[in-house]
Design brief:
Elements (H helix, E strand, L loop, with lengths): L1 H13 L5 E5 L9 H9 L3 E16 L8 E11 L4 H9 L11 H4 E4 L11 E5 H7 L6 E6 H9 L7 E9 L9 E4 L1 H8 L7 E6 L5 H11 L7 E5 H4 L1 H39 L1 H9 L4 H37 L19 H17 L2 H8 L3 H6 L2
Parallel strand pairs: 3-8, 5-7
Antiparallel strand pairs: 1-9, 1-10, 2-3, 2-6, 2-9, 4-7, 5-8, 6-7
Helix pairs in contact: 1-10, 2-3, 10-14, 12-13, 12-14
Length: 387
């Protein structure tokens, strides 16, 4: 179940987060040179390179539209495609090209139009559906946008600072995990609003396999093209490290609780084998007088523990895998409607199954140590006296 929750959260976050994010050290603007863009394009596992402009801004209704001023995240993305390194570097400085981003706007729009170009003298903006419902906004309503730099200018300048006006073109979903509302703008408008003169706030890279992100970052460090004193490079795990670490900690805690349950079961096995030694004193004495050595006697108990572990772990594993399959296929354990998921997610990992099988078998063998020593130290004459 913990594997299932981890996989679901990871999938949701990766739908929003890049596999590798590159930001500049000491400056909010990212402007790589031609050599760096060329290096990224030459990597065979790079699928997309995206210019991203992101920041905080205040959105407010305009010209009679309802709603209070709200602070939320505004962003814009534009992808860099192929071409020569000089063309790509220039495209980055200009904010990317007109090709689709890593996540097509049309796929993210729940209602409305994804076209953010200037129409009737005003650019378009996409806002989160829940935010629009709270504010009473509709498609076509004008809204004003004020970023932190523009608010600072309004407080320090004698001249009034007017918000940038855009018309709502459509509605999108909020962040799948945090639920934070967002506003998606055209790249040009986002750069004007957030005062990003060139480049973007980050350079996002998506790979063919997100599991290669760690190796890819190591290659970037080893190349010498991305010095660590100028660039901060984060993998998808680094971007949400606290959340991923908490989920891993929960899994370790559950494993510890499971180990304590297994420990109680081991004590029961030790007790039952000890009682068997006491009940079979005569049989053990007869076997010893017939020539059975202490080592062979110990092997009998160990073999008993191995078979006990194999049979118990085997049946338990089959039962557990069956329950996991039933939950995955039919969702027997349902979640409340307040959650994003309908049922408890589950995922089988071969490493976990193998660990449980080996661990259970070894524990059963370990449980035979004390009873086997008791049987080995028992003198045959004492057992024969009870005949």
């Amino acid at each position: 179940m913990f594997n299932g929750f981890y996989a679901e959260v990871q999938s949701m976050l990766l739908s929003e987060d890049p596999h590798v994010r590159i930001t500049a050290v000491g400056t909010p603007h990212v402007v790589p040179d031609e050599v760096q863009i060329d290096w990224l394009q030459q990597q065979s596992n790079v699928e997309q390179i995206v210019v991203r402009v992101e920041g905080k801004a205040v959105l407010m209704g305009q010209q009679g539209s309802r709603g209070e001023a709200k602070l939320l995240t505004v962003m814009a993305e534009s992808q860099i495609y192929g071409g020569t390194s000089s063309e790509s570097a220039q495209a980055f400085k200009e904010g990317g090209d007109d090709k689709p981003t890593a996540r097509e706007l049309s796929e993210r729009v729940l209602y409305g139009d994804s076209d953010l170009s200037v129409k009737e003298g005003r650019p378009g903006v996409l806002v989160s559906l829940n935010q629009a419902n709270q504010q009473g906004w509709s498609i076509g309503d004008p809204i004003g946008l004020l970023s932190a730099p523009r608010l600072q200018q309004a407080l320090t300048s004698v001249r009034p600072t007017r918000p940038l006006i855009a018309n709502i073109r459509g509605f999108t979903a909020s962040h799948p995990i945090t639920g934070e509302p967002t506003a998606t703008l055209d790249m040009g408008l986002a750069r004007r609003l957030l005062r990003v003169p060139v480049g973007g706030t980050s350079l996002d890279v998506r790979l063919q396999d997100f599991n290669d992100a760690g190796v890819f970052v190591s290659q970037m460090d080893a190349s010498g093209v991305w010095p660590s004193d100028h660039w901060r490079i984060q993998t998808w795990y680094d971007q949400q490290k606290s959340l991923y670490d908490v989920m891993q900690l929960e899994k370790r805690g559950a494993t510890l609780i499971l180990f304590m349950i297994v420990l109680v079961a081991l004590l029961n096995i030790v007790g039952s084998l000890t009682m068997m030694v006491l009940q079979k004193r005569k049989e053990i004495a007869i076997l010893r007088t017939m020539g059975l050595s202490k080592r062979e006697l110990r092997s009998l108990f160990w073999l008993h523990g191995v078979w006990l572990g194999i049979v118990g772990a085997g049946f338990g594993t089959l039962l557990g895998m069956g329950l996991v399959w039933l939950q995955g296929e039919f969702g027997l354990l349902r979640l409340s409607t307040d959650f994003l998921l309908d049922a408890y997610p589950v995922q089988l990992q071969g490493g976990d199954v193998l660990t449980v099988l080996l661990g259970t078998t070894l524990c059963c063998v370990a449980a035979t140590i004390l009873p086997s020593r008791r049987a080995m130290n028992q003198e045959p004459i004492q057992g024969l006296h009870s005949l």
